[in-house]
Amino acid sequence: MKKFALAAVAALVIAGCQDKKGVSYGFADKAENLTVSDVVLTEPPVANESLKTMPAPAPSVQKKIIKEGDISFETNDIAKARKRVTDALKVVGGYVSEERQANNSYEKRIEYTLDVRIPAAKFEGFLKEITAAGDRIESKNIRTRDVTAEYIDVTTRLNNKKALEKRYLELLAKAGKMADVLEIESKLNDVRTDIESNQGQLNYLSKQIDYSSLSITFYTQQSAKDNGQGFGYRWQKSIGDSWGIAVNLFFGIITLWPVWLLAAIIIYIIRRLIKRRKAKRTQQQ
Question: Residue 258 pLDDT > 50, yes or no?
Answer without folding.
Answer: yes
